[in-house]
Amino acid sequence: MKIADIIKYEGDNSTFIWKHPIEDFNTMTQLIVHESQEAIFMMNGQALDLFGPGRHTLETQNIPLIRKLINIPTGGKTPFHGEVYFINKTTQMGIKWGTDSKVRFIDPLTGVPLQIGACGEMNLKVADSRKLLVKLVGTTSGIAWNQEGKRFTNSLKNSFKPLISTAVKVNLSKSIVSENINILEIDSHLDTLSSTLKENIVSGFEEYGLTIPQFYVTTVVLPEEDPNFKKIRELHTISFQTKIAEAEATVRAAQAKAKAKITAAEREIELEKKTTQTEVAKREAERKVIESQGSATSTKIEGFADADVMRAKGYNEKDVIQADVQKAFAQGIGNMGSGSSGNSGGNSPVADIMGLGVGLAAANAMSSQVGGMFHNFVGNNQNNTADTTVKTKQICPNCGAQIPENAKFCFECGTKVEMHNNDTVICPNCKQTVPKSKFCSECGFKLSTTCPKCGTETNGAKFCPECGEKQ
What we know:
Blueprint: E1 4-7, E2 15-19, E3 24-33, E4 37-43, E5 46-51, E6 54-58, H1 64-69, E7 80-81, E8 83-88, E9 92-98, E10 103-106, E11 113-126, H2 129-137, E12 142-144, H3 156-178, H4 190-206, E13 210-221, H5 227-313, H6 317-334, H7 349-366, H8 368-373, H9 375-381, E14 394-395, E15 402-403, E16 424-426, E17 433-435
Parallel strand pairs: 1-3
Antiparallel strand pairs: 2-8, 2-12, 3-6, 3-7, 4-5, 4-8, 9-11, 10-11, 11-13, 14-15, 16-17
Helix pairs in contact: 3-4, 6-7
């Protein structure tokens, strides 16, 4: 019987679990475990201690589970019988898989049955060493994916092939339909199928202490020679072309709609532009109107101010005109009979008449009323040939001269004369004698009123002239 002093892994990297061939060990035997490996001691069919990467001395202090089974004196080299299994923790890449028969698939567009297959690759790794050893390896010398060279009596491929094939057959067609995948475009959806199938397979591997980091569907085999598949290809082609036409029509409609929106927006901008121009012109016209109104108001205010000043002085514009007429007439009278003694025409009747004519012309040009005052005088000098329409109904209180009924000043002495006739009234507001009207011509006070008792016009009086009722 050979007793080992050093125990280490002597298998290849494709092996998942390898059993060391020597089963008798001394208590001071050295156990060497490489990186990405684990070692499990088994005795009497029980999986005892598990050792990770590193160098370990096999003695009772280091393997307490073994010490419970055998009685070994401390410090001795008494041999004991056991088994050591090395578990490879690396990820095994590119493990191939495939369905052992065709999968029945019903095309959802036509309802035609087809036979399809699938194959691919996956990566496999040990997740739980003790579970894999106990449930799958047992007492064999080890296990790998393939049974190459008949090294092991069993392989992972033979153990899990039915699980993979069944899961793919059950879920491949279901995944294509649920994900709404076009059978003719299935190559562009292999990632989706891979993810779906992995979810349905990984649980079966985890039950035995294995895990699948990656699972790939690399090929879905289509029945290219099947007449039904050829018809489906033709129908899908027509459907695809129809979809393209519909998509193009949708794009054209969207472009037309967008163009219509752009045109409407341009029209709206142009309308807003014209509206803005109209508003600008309107505001300019309003500004000019306001300026004109302001100018007119200013002129009116200035006129009212001048009128207030004249009223405060006791006369109005009419008085000024009449005073200028009287002055011009007086100058014309004063020039009669005047002249230089050296002139042959001095003191001649012709010069007097011309001077008087100038005064009369000025009077007629400045006031028709004052011109009427001299109508009798002119008419007498012209043998009474003119029409005498002016009536002198007033007498100047200063010089006694007769003056027209509407005159406010005497043309003889210039004295202001108050009007006292039936066509004039005294304004109760400004106390001025003004012609009868609805409003005072001097201050604008309302004059035309009627007595509420007898209906007689009171012209602003405080008491009715007919019944004496207070107004």
